[in-house]
Amino acid sequence: MRDPVTGFVYPAIWAERCTDPVRLRLVEQGLAILTSSGTVIRRGFTTGTTAAAACKAAILSLKTDLLSVPITIPCGLTVLLTVTAHAGTATCTKFSGDYPEDVTAGLCFVAEASLEMKKVELIPGEGIGHFVRSTPRYPKGTPAISTSALDCIQRSMDEAIHEINLPGVSVRLTVPAGERVAAMTLNSRVGVENGISILGTTGLVEPWDDHLEEAVMERVAAAHNPVLTTGRVGLRYARMLFPERDVILVGGKIEKALRAAQGDVVLCGLPALVLRYISPGLLDGTGCLTVEELAATPDFSRIVPPLLAGFKKTYPHVCVVLVNRNGAIIAESP
Known about the structure:
By secondary structure, the chain is of the alpha/beta class. The protein contains eleven helices and 19 strands. It has helices at 12-17, 21-29, 47-60, 147-163, 178-182, 208-222, 232-241, 254-260, 271-278, 291-295, 299-314; strands spanning 32-34, 40-42, 44-45, 66-72, 78-86, 89-93, 108-115, 120-124, 127-128, 130-131, 169-174, 192-193, 195-196, 204-205, 227-229, 247-249, 265-269, 318-323, 329-332.
């Protein structure tokens, strides 16, 4: 059995230990993860997927009421989300799967659609954050909606207007409790205020912190010369850079993974988590709020190489490879 999201092939013994065939089917669909004990842990839906469902349902409800809507998410899967949609207004509640630490769990997204002539427009409203300073990817004042999430929302809106043959539509998207919930996130530290961020690299929420650590570390310990990565973008490019090696997503559990790993290890991914692990005070005195900001300045090439050289002395069996969002290597161990 292969995870359609990550490509990981589950050992047959894991599936044999699972006593719930219904949940095992969710694993086959990519909606859940199988652990070594046979326990099945459900994935949730990101804010981007939830927003896309609300927007698509609002448009479709201009013609008929809806209780669910299919969404093609960034990883390529098509998933069915529960909605309430009537006369151009739709709501969708964020489902976070078996990840109780997700502070956005249960958030209600509201979309209101109205007819337009020959254009499809998304209007981010109340509860969606905005950048209060320019970053390498987002100018000041830009709504905090990631590229992958925005693509998913726009694709879903386009599908809806074609399905019911509309010339165009305007959709206002709001998250009524967004500003309150955003206060419990790290948004203010990355320059986003007045609401939550709409995100989703794959469209699915991974329940890493509470359930998957044991299974992930089993994979790390069993691998020979593994490549460890921290997120979905890193996973994609690490597989391209090291096709002959076992690439394992460890999230923020870098230290534990390095202790478990055997042989020559590569730590590959976007710079944020990796560099914060190597040097927690990396941004002190730089004037940057995020590692991504730092990476766009000349200071990056001055600060990072000595850090990687020092890390190599401490961990001589570990090679660090940092990539940007286009997959280009921007720094690596000497």
